[in-house]
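Task: fold both queries, return tokens.
Query 1:
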Amino acid sequence: MAEPKENMQMEKIVSLCKRRGFVFQSSEIYGGINGFWDYGPLGAELKRNVKELWWNTMTRQREDVAGLEATIIMSPAIWKASGHVDTFSDPMCDCKKCKKRFRADQLCDDQYLTLTKGADGKYVLPAGTKCTSCGSTELTEPRPFNLMFKTYVGPVESEDNVAYLRPETAQAIFAQFKNVLETSRQSVPFGIGQIGKAFRNEVTPRNYTFRSREFEQMELEFFIKPDEAVEAICGSVQTVPETGHPGEPQPNWGWQAWHQYWVEERVRFYEGIGLSRDTLGFHRQTPEELAHYARACVDILFKFPFSKRDEKGELRGEELEGIAARSDFDLSQHARFSGKPMGVFDDALRTAWTKLPKEKQDDLWRRYYENRKRYLTKSGVEAEPAAKQATEDANGLAKGQYIPHVIEPSAGVDRLILALITNAYTETVKTDDKGKSETIYTMKFHPRVAPIKAGILPLLKNKPELVKKALEVRDLLRPWMNVYYDDSGSIGKRYARQDEAGTPYCLTIDFDTLGEKPELLDTVTIRHRDDGRQERLKISELLGWLLSKIR
């Protein structure tokens, strides 16, 4: 059977990534280790560029977001409160014949089947599910497999010293919420952003770097007023259409408007680094798919070569980022488990509450009470204490107190890097005058994320005056961006090398630069990667011109 063209394309991408130094298999000289990847010189630059752009966009360019960098190992009580200790698992099954192990949901998905749960809450494989390795239908029943990596703190390996490598970066933000709120002089609504490593002991890592055991996340937790507080202060809660950008944030926005705002803000980010809406997909989770505490979640998808196809034959896409409206679940959990208050005081709410008619106060009180009671009972609190605690929480509105809700845009760095590489990968077949064909590979990265911004190319390396001027250009640009000096081989071969690396601009220093044509003295030739177009520019204008392209 012919190999699917998507698999062939993925193999070419993997080959180029190794050949040009984007991605290497971890521990390769020892046979590699499954689910772990290293980034080579070009990959490290690409990844750093993406993270810096995210950080600048999400924190430095906003007045309402502060940053955090927390530890990978934290108190295990945090993971108990978040639910990871008890529920963070994937269903796993084994083939009795060939002994291969699979994630049950992936096994079903590969065969266009649906994994279901029985009345007892246990997963059930559909009839006829086969091992994708040997074809056997002798599979064990799915059983939960906790994804957290366990370790020990201190010299004694005992249960008292158990700790975990964090499976996500979000929980540190919730645990440090009050500290960041107080020290950053912020007020709700505001966000806390973090970039960092996370670890999940995936049953079956696959699809290159898409699903790994060690990966990096870019997460924002954006804290907002509950709708009841917004309505008390503003008189009403504004909702917005579920398509299009709602514009600048407004004081009367409720959770739905904030959620749509962050969906569109994240799409703008992707468009700004070269992923157009045409390359993306969107999945609004159904009520059955949502976590019990979530009000909504939109997944932003990218159509990878390994993505499954739908019934129409179109690539479905894989998740790059999820934007979830998580209610007040996370802060509430940490308040319950730690015994420390996670609520905030809002003077505008306290003042507005006193001016509300009694019937309006009662209506808002009741709605807030019901929401808090629902959270508590779903979290396992008995009915009577849940009602008592919900009453206390609702009474806090009159005092200007509430627990913030949160909107969470959570993106995977490694998945995004793979999407950018896949999107940039371009093949062109060129045939010379003698009929000989050659495949040319070009990585068409957006200049903002390109690992190398400009190649510095003296026309000839044996002409000291050309080399001297080329090095001056390199040193002019180097403090501001990553550039690459190359004087080896013909100019055509050097262009080709830079095209494979994804360099958007090549700057050639030639004899005209030295004044062979007086009107071109101290100019360079700029060669554009994507169309081969060339233009000349004064060296004195070069830095400003390039900065306008890469920022």
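Query 1 returned. Query 2:
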Amino acid sequence: MADTPYQWRFFRAGGFDQVQLDTAADLLALGELDQKLWVALSCPVKGIEFDSRSLQFIDSDNDGHVRAPELLAAIAWANSRLTSADPLVQKRQGVSVAQIRDEDEPGKLIKTAAQALTKELGKSETDELTVAETSSAQAGHAARALSAWEAAGADALPLGEATAAAHALVTELDGKVQDFFTRCQLAAFDERAGGALNASEDSLKALAPATLQAGTQAISDLPLAHISAGAALPLNVGVNPAWAARLATLRDTIVNPLLGAQTEISAADWQAIKDKLATYTTWLAAKPDPTAEGDGLSDLEKLARYVRDLHALANNFVAFRNFYTRQGMATFQIGTLYLDGRSCELCVAVNDAAKHGALANLSGVCLVYCDCVRGADKVSIAAAFTAGDSDQLMVGRNGVFYDRQGRDWDATITKIIDHPISLRQAFWSPYKKAARLVSSQLQKLAASKANAADDTLGKAAVSAAEKSAKGEVVKAPPPPFDVGKFAGIFAAIGLALGAIGTMAVSVASGLFSLAWWQFPLVIVGLMLVISLPSMIVAWFKLRARNLGPILDANGWAINARARINIPFGTSLTKVAQLPAGAQRTLSDPYAEKQSSWPYLLVLLALVAAVIWYLRTHA
């Protein structure tokens, strides 16, 4: 009989189905769930809000990414080390001795380490050993190993505190000294080798034209001293100048204390020096790794972390439960940006804004990139603006970024990827564009007129100055009155006024032919004719917003179309509002004074339209 498939439960969020992981059975059966239904298949270890040490344990191949097989392996390992998998979903902070399975050798080591730590902390076997306690115990093991190693080093220092420096110098010189003695042995083997193994005449001639210094590479490459059969290495005179200082230090700090005062050493002497330092070399190689595992302690820490963190990671990996249910921040949300009267909760870490923006642009989300500085520290973020408008968003504006630890950072906008933010913005967009166009044209016209007036005034001033310098007093005759010219101007003005009046009368007659309740419908219809096209375009773009490219640009492998629809997107950005019950005084002593002329002109136009209507329908 075939096994009954596991009965999964899903919830709908972000426009797609996401698996619901509530029980230990859900976690253990996760390997049976088709990975096409996982929201993500890989996430980076860095740049997300999750315990980095826990992620290091899960990232078994240490490639900087946690992938689906590694998450499944971590769940399976934790289940194999626990008497029951229930603690994995109980939001515990650690594990107790009683919950550890000890049926095999690794399990026994973990339990023994847990029992020892429990006794050390004065706890019972049913008390939890927290992540902090197990991590501290692991760190303590490394510290104790280091202390034991340092104590053993007392017998491995033939030169006392100078041994480390002596060992470093001998290590540095060993290759060059061995080269010298090998050349001398070859010269003893065959006398013809003596001349060949010394510096050639051509190489010395090549040095002659140059400005020489002892540290020049060409000099350093020459032998330490003159090569001859059975020669000893001199330490005072006759040595390569590039190595003279180090050979002098070798003589004073190592050769004389260990072998007695002498001005040269043989190959046997050099080997004797290395033999005397051999105990130090062996001791140094045995220095314990700071991350060294104690017997069962590292696995105990890993188990405690898995009990605390695996369920949360699965719900931010297989599903984006925290993000879409708004029951806390997701792992990729690193803080909140406050800027332009809004708070943006969808903020992700960014290493390279240009590289990130190339892919994140496909999300259809308005993204604002900021450099955030706190003292000497600096981070870069991308914040999604999903409510309000983008009128006042510009490069260089400043805000404040609060990370998940509550620390505040100075944030400055460095780049903006502009996309529709809201339907309200799309509704008013045509009017704002028209207002900006009119304002721009008026400013250009005013500027051109001002420049023309300045040019005319400047030319007149220069002309007057020149004439004054010559003693001339010349009055230009007034230009003759051109009747035809002014008649044409008046005629054009009359035609324009007539066209405007005709249009106004036509509009007024059309409006007055309507019932009173039809006036609002006409106004609403006119506004819709103007705003509806931009609203339709924005509506389609807002419905197509997708979280995937934003996270893919950060190294995630998003496996679903994680949509950010209009209602959900609005919840990610809060717009400033007065608190409920707040008192508000509307009088503003510095408010700009409103001119009555616009209202008067509108009133006169209405009166004229009414008079015209009454006369034509009398």
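Both queries returned. Flag for query 2: Residues 29-150+295-323 form one domain.
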